[in-house]
Every structure is written in C-alpha cells, then in structure tokens.
UniProtKB/TrEMBL annotation:
GO annotation terms (biological process): glycine catabolic process; methylation
Entry's family note: Belongs to the GcvT family.
GO cellular component: cytosol; glycine cleavage complex
NCBIfam families attached to this UniProt entry: gcvT (TIGR00528), PRK00389.1 (NF001567)
Organism, as annotated: Fervidobacterium nodosum
Gene: gcvT
Catalytic EC class: transferase
Protein name listed in UniProt: aminomethyltransferase
Length: 389
C-alpha cells in the first residue's frame, strides 16, 4: 500500500521531495491529481507524493526536518543548471551570483536582468473591510491610492518599530495583496491575523503557490512588450495590471528593488520555470542576490534585518513620507507620534567614502575620535566607483 506524504502545486517541488526521500532509501511515486485553483492566477496542476505505508512515518520526519531548515523556490533546479552559486537566505536556497556580482549589476544598470524573488511572501486580504483593514495595519495612506496602484509602507508594532516594510496592492474594493519579506512571512501573517480580529476580512497566505520574477533594467519594457497581452506603457510606476506574460496569467507590476525601471511578475508557482526559461530565450540575463543587494543599496533602499528591525521606527529609518499621521488611526500611531513630538535621537543616513575601505554591517563610525554611529549596510558601488553605506 502507498500513502500520500505530501501534496504540491506543480511538479518541481514534488521532484525535489522525491530526490530527498530517494536519497534516504525511500521509494517514491508521484501522481498528478486535481487542478488547484490559485486565488489570483487561476488553475494549476496539483501533485501528490506517495511512499510505501511502512515508510510513511520516516518520510514525514525527513520532510519536516528539511522543511525546518531550508525551502526551495520553483526555480531552484534552473539556478543549479545555470551554474549559480547557491546560498541559504531567509530560509531558502537562493542564487548569490551567476557570472559575477559586478557584471550582473552592470547588466541591470545598462540593459536588463532578472531575479528570482519567489521567496517573498504574499497574503490575500478579502472581504468588505479589506481596504479599511489594510489602511489600519500599515503606516502609509493606503486608502488614498487608486485601484490598480501599489503603496510602499511600514507595518509597525505597538512601540512604532518595524514589523516589516512591504508593498500593498489595491486589487478591488474587497481584495488587497500584501507582499512581505521572506524572513518575516510567518511573523507578518500572524501579526495581521491578530490585527484583523475586529475587521470583516479573510486572510490567506498564498506564498507557496506564488512565484515572483523581477525583470529590471532600462531595456525591460522593450523586451517584455512583444510577449504580453498588456500595453506596458499604460502601467505607471507603482501600478499593476492583471494579464498574461508568455501566455501565463498573473499580475504585472511596475515595481522593483534596483533603482531601475522594470516589472515584477507574480505568477503561479508551477509556471514560474516556464516564464523564466522564456525570458532566457529572449536574452534576459539572470542575476543573483549579491547584485540585487548592491543595486538596492546604490538606490538607497532599505533591507529589513540590516537597516531596520522591530526596535527601529520608520522615522528613524528616514522614510517619514511613509507615515501619514493625518489619515486617521493605524497600529503604532501613538508611539510614532510621541517620537515625532519628542524629536529623533538617531537617524539612518547614506554616506560615501573616498578611500578604499569597504564599509560592512556593524562597523563603527567615528568623528573626531568619538563614536557617532554604525554601518547598517555597506558595499563597493560599481556604478559610483566608490564605497557606499
């Protein structure tokens, strides 16, 4: 007798589980079963992983142990085949680099590159209070933006510290999507669940079912336009449309984490590899986390865990424009208002260095022999040709 040990959306994750179990001398059978209906993107094939009944308990423990340690994005196999250097990041195996960080930075700045960011978290918020709830949960004025627009914002705790920084998509009067950092998926979802108790909404974590590819660089629109049914010129900065890319349904948004023009493609997890391979065919080069970190730092964009955490507020992180006190009540408002009235005692600032020393996380900064701060993020900027922090 065979017993189902796991169900997956798409075949890639099922094959990864198969390799894991076979490596531990457990026979595996994979069968395609039902059609999974993704809440945003439509239908996907669902797979079941089966093992002999007498091996079931052992298989469950192996999967649980592996799951506690590291997860895989739908593109893991593609990264390995392309020769990427893989590292663990935020609980996922992710590509650090392909041909090299500097080369990948230059590709994105001058042409077009793409990043696997399927490790990011996505939550759907649905119900009559969806917009009202989202506006209460975040610091920026989500209520003021139009349908089809996106807002960058902080989500704070009762002391005004960051729970996370995130994007919120205004899909319809009763549907909103939160996009959060990979390391904070569970924490953020639980935080939102608690806040939602007094609102008429339903929260669904769709992170595992959703793939995400960021295509970035000045030539992005030119390369993508022939392969979508949307007019990309009509998608403004921090806006999105639902449509198709290479025949795959998804959300296409004009957003990114590089300081360049570009689009982020939210698609079903089991069709992410198809889109990735089509992008390779039209000449888009892959880039890794190393280049992404340099690009975001050159653009002055924050990284949760480095530049801010639950003890640092949006005001201290120098994004006061993402806190709208005048919009009404939001969680963490009282603490932030007190801090604003009392004045800031510390503040995040960008700096450049004239020498050759490359600043790194937690390095101390001195002026006239006195410590005045520390580095949150630092690197050498290929674009500016100098160290930055």
């Amino acid at each position: 007798m065979w017993k189902i040990v796991a169900s997956t959306v798409g075949e890639i994750e099922a094959r990864i589980i198969e390799r894991l179990l076979v490596a531990n001398d457990i026979p595996v059978v994979i069968q395609k079963t039902d059609v999974f209906v993704h809440p945003v993107f439509g239908s996907s094939v669902q797979c079941e992983v089966l093992v002999p009944e007498e091996k079931y308990n052992e298989a469950i423990e192996i999967i649980r142990w592996e799951g506690k340690n590291v997860k895989y994005t739908p593109l893991y196999e593609d990264h390995v085949k392309l020769g990427a250097k893989m590292v663990e990041f935020a609980g996922f195996y992710m590509p650090l680099q392909y041909e090299g960080i500097v080369a990948e930075v230059n590709t994105v700045r001058k042409e077009v590159g793409m990043f696997d960011v399927s490790h990011m978290g996505e939550f759907l918020c649905e119900g009559p209070d969806a917009i009202k709830f989202a506006n209460y949960a975040v610091t920026n004025d989500f209520g003021s933006i139009n349908f089809g627009d996106i807002i960058y914002t902080a989500m704070c705790n009762e002391n005004g510290g960051f729970v996370d920084d995130l994007l919120v998509y205004k899909i319809s009067p009763e549907k909103v999507m939160f996009v959060v950092n990979a390391a904070n998926i569970d924490k953020d979802f639980n935080h939102l669940l608690k806040l939602s108790e007094k609102f008429n909404v339903k929260l669904t974590n769709i992170s595992d079912e959703t793939g995400l590819i960021a295509v970035q660089g000045p030539k992005t629109q030119e390369l993508l336009q022939p392969n979508t049914n949307l007019n990309l010129e009509e998608i403004g900065y921090y806006s999105f449309k639902e449509g198709e890319i290479f025949g795959v349904k998804g959300i296409i948004s004009r957003t990114g984490y590089t300081g360049e023009d570009g689009f982020e493609l939210y698609i079903p997890a089991n069709q992410t590899a198809l889109v990735w391979r089509k992008l390779l065919e039209i000449g888009v080069k892959p880039a890794g986390l190393g280049a992404r970190d340099v690009l975001r730092l050159e653009a002055g964009l924050l990284l949760y865990g480095n530049d801010m955490d639950d003890t640092i507020t949006p005001l201290e992180a120098s994004i006061p424009w993402a806190v709208k006190f005048e919009k009404g009540e939001f969680f963490g408002k009282d603490a932030l208002l007190r801090q604003k009235e009392e004045g800031l005692k510390r503040r995040l600032r960008g700096i450049t260095l004239d020498g050759k020393l490359v600043p790194r996380h937690n390095m101390e900064i001195y002026k006239d022999g006195q410590k005045i701060g520390y580095v949150t993020s630092g690197t050498f900027s290929p674009t500016l040709e100098k160290p930055i922090a």
